[in-house]
UniProtKB/TrEMBL annotation:
Its main location: cytoplasm. Single strand-specific metallo-endoribonuclease involved in late-stage 70S ribosome quality control and in maturation of the 3' terminus of the 16S rRNA. It holds the Pfam family YbeY. One of its GO terms (cellular component) is cytoplasm. Belongs to the endoribonuclease YbeY family. Its cofactor is Zn(2+). The keyword Cell wall biogenesis/degradation does not apply. Binds 1 zinc ion. This is Endoribonuclease YbeY.
Length: 122
């Protein structure tokens, strides 16, 4: 089950996120997706990662079958290789909930390849 909260004034079509979520998670997984302004993304990034800039995406695994993804709606919708698009960031955050990371170049490559497959870009 996926629930959405939009804490911004921007309109967000959640249909694509529902579709992507069903490709990534099984029915038992409870996912909360929050569309957040840059100010909240900055506050969360400071609090949890000790970084003084707004995050693009933050993921929190709350329990084995429950997690949250916060998406920064203040970013440009397009960017290098589409990395600023919200669907890409959603998939990136979802993969973190599944245990993917980008600590090394091999991990980064695996995570990127998986994201592109989910988005049907590879």
């Amino acid at each position: 089950m996926i629930s959405f909260s939009n804490l911004t004034k921007k309109r967000v079509n959640t249909k694509i996120f529902k579709g992507l979520g069903s490709k990534i998670f099984n029915e038992e997984f409870e996912l909360s997706v929050v569309f957040a302004p840059p100010s909240l993304m900055l506050a969360l990034n400071k609090r949890y990662l000790n970084k003084n800039k707004p995050a693009n995406v933050l993921s929190f695994l709350l329990e084995r079958w429950r997690g949250e993804i916060f998406l920064n709606t203040g970013l440009p919708r397009r960017g290098k290789a589409g990395e600023k698009k919200l669907p890409y960031l959603f998939v990136h955050g979802a993969l973190h909930l599944l245990g993917f990371n980008h600590r090394g170049s091999n991990d980064t490559k695996k995570m990127e390849n998986r994201a592109l497959k989910i988005l049907n870009l590879k």
